[in-house]
Amino acid sequence: MELLPQLHTYQKPRQKRRPQTTLTRPRKPRFYWHDEENMRLELKSFWEDDLNVTISEYYPNELPPIPSEFLLNYFNRNDLRWGIAQIGGRETLSHVLGGAFIIPGKWKEAKKLGIIQRVMHLIDDDTNMSSTKKSKVTTKSNSQINTINREPLISMIQHTEATKLSKAFWSKEKAIRELYCYLDNYKKYKHRPSVFMPQLSELKHEGYQKLFNACSRFKKLPQGDAFGHSIQYSAGLVPYKEWRFFESQLQLFVELQHYLNLHHEGKEDTFPDPDLVKKRGHVQLSHLIRTHGGKLLLAQKLDMELAASTMSIQSWGPFSLDFAIQLLQFIREQYMTINPPLTFPIISMPSEQDLIRFGYDDLTHQISRFGGYENVARRLGLAYFDGKNEKVDEMLVRRAKRLWKQRKS
């Protein structure tokens, strides 16, 4: 079980929906926030019920003003904030309501209004209202700490020139060098291969806001230009969806083997029922089973019988769960030793020469027993090709290798 803490899907399990905490505002029905009258009533309720303000004293037309982002965050009206976003923003909502006044986002301008001065006693005196960005970032970081509970990468390493923020926009070469530096540090501190393209939201969570902005900007490609200018392709990195599937499948096999050892005496002839798995406390395993196709598909793939089922299953041929774990773990260990860029940025089936060179002769015999290299690759979702007939952009690879060497300069 030592492998699991290194896997991305184990570090970031499926998030559970938090139970409702406000009994006075139950969850609204579907499309509730798309109705004009509902939005008007909710805005009126915000001012008169929550803040005890009479709208007609400040706005004779009795159109409720649209509160700023800070006011909604400060008074925990996330539902109303969501409704404004569903309408299309404050300007759109103001037009829909017939010209409702919009509370300015800048606090220096907002606090001059009479309706805001009326509610100043409800707001802490020591709260700095000069910027709403501070409260938003604090709230977000607290929620991330509660759900992920791991220290950001940028706090683990020494701040070099590569991690300092600059005011100018980054070129693509600059962004790739910074991305390489980030991946190299992530590999050292959190044990993930440096050839795996990170999810963009991960960059923001780890404290690399400038790198997140650059990668987001270069991700937006013109129509029809599928891969030629993406930063992921230029850097020679395995796409996030591909390596996440690879690691989640490895986690599925490891947790399934652990479950079989606990409840089936280690026998691999019967695939467990996901509902029973969940009742026994293996919630993550139950979710992984459904994510990877369900019990029927996995039972066929792993050559197992379904538990408490009388129907016959068409097997894909002989297979072994322990063999699959050993092979996938070998592939991950090999990618840990490789530096970007990859000539072919995919997760591929290892060749027979690679397995023999690293002393895995038993895996070569089992691959022959289970149908050969191509059959095993298809069953595990791995790429299988010899690379001889594949076109390689040698200039792009050479440029990426040069940027990898210059990542710390």
Task: Explain the overall architecture.
This protein starts with 7 loop residues before the first helix and ends with a helix. Helix 9 crosses helix 11 and helix 13 crosses helix 17. It has a two-stranded parallel ribbon. The chain has about 400 residues and is an all-alpha fold. It is built from 21 helices and 2 strands. The radius of gyration is 27 Å and the shape is extended.
Keywords:
mainly alpha; single chain; two-stranded parallel sheet; 409 residues
Précis, in short:
By secondary structure, the protein is mainly alpha-helical. Helices cover 50% and strands 1% of the residues. It has helices spanning 8-11, 36-50, 69-74, 78-87, 90-96, 107-110, 114-118, 133-148, 172-190, 200-205, 209-219, 231-235, 240-263, 274-279, 283-291, 294-301, 321-336, 352-357, 361-369, 373-380, 394-405; strands at residues 270-271, 305-306.
Question: What's the structural blueprint in terms of helices and strands?
Answer:
Blueprint: H1 8-11, H2 36-50, H3 69-74, H4 78-87, H5 90-96, H6 107-110, H7 114-118, H8 133-148, H9 172-190, H10 200-205, H11 209-219, H12 231-235, H13 240-263, E1 270-271, H14 274-279, H15 283-291, H16 294-301, E2 305-306, H17 321-336, H18 352-357, H19 361-369, H20 373-380, H21 394-405
Helix pairs in contact: 9-11, 13-17
* Inertia-based shape: extended
Share of helical residues:
40-55%
What string, H for helix and E for strand, traces the elements in order?
HHHHHHHHHHHHHEHHHEHHHHH
Quaternary structure of the protein:
single chain
Ends distance = 39 Å
Instruction: Please outline the major beta sheet.
Output: 2 strands, parallel
Strand tally? 2
Average per-residue pLDDT, rounded, comes to 78
As a percent range, the share of strand residues is under 5%
Number of helices: 21
Widest β-sheet, arrangement of strands: 1-2
